[in-house]
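Here is the promised in-class demo. Please do not try to memorize the tokens; focus on the logic of going from shape to residues.
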């Protein structure tokens, strides 16, 4: 796979992830009935929903800045994975297996995006090391 293809897949995934989690973050901060009610049904307290919304919006800002904050992007990916895992687990236990489909789709998108991210920045890092060794 070429670096250009890898970057294209990464940016498509980053945009989809940002749309998904950005929409979710806005819904959490505006008390959208669907998101808010499900999250309360899962047993999470209201203050947690606001913090989650803020964290999601801050994370997507970092995610969408090209070639900057690479270490922070690792933390953003970790946070997104934790969010997905907790959503999956909570929905599985409280609502049932059918409610976990969105978490499975999100996990797949984010896993592919993160894999492409690692390929891009591992390749870029190795090229920089080769240049500095010369």
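The designed amino acids, position by position:
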């Amino acid at each position: 796979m070429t670096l250009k293809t890898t970057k294209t897949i990464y940016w498509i995934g980053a945009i989809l992830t940002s749309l998904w989690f950005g929409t979710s973050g806005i819904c959490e901060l505006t008390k959208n009935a669907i998101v808010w009610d499900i999250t309360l049904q899962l047993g999470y307290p209201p203050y947690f929903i606001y913090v989650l919304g803020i964290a999601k919006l801050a994370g997507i800002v970092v995610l969408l800045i090209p070639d900057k904050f690479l270490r922070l992007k690792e933390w953003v990916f970790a946070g997104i994975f934790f969010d997905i895992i907790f959503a999956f687990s909570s929905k599985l236990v409280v609502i049932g297996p059918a409610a976990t489909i969105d978490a499975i789709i999100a996990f797949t998108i984010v896993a592919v995006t993160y894999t492409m991210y690692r390929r891009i920045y591992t390749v870029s890092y190795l090229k920089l090391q080769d240049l500095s060794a010369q």
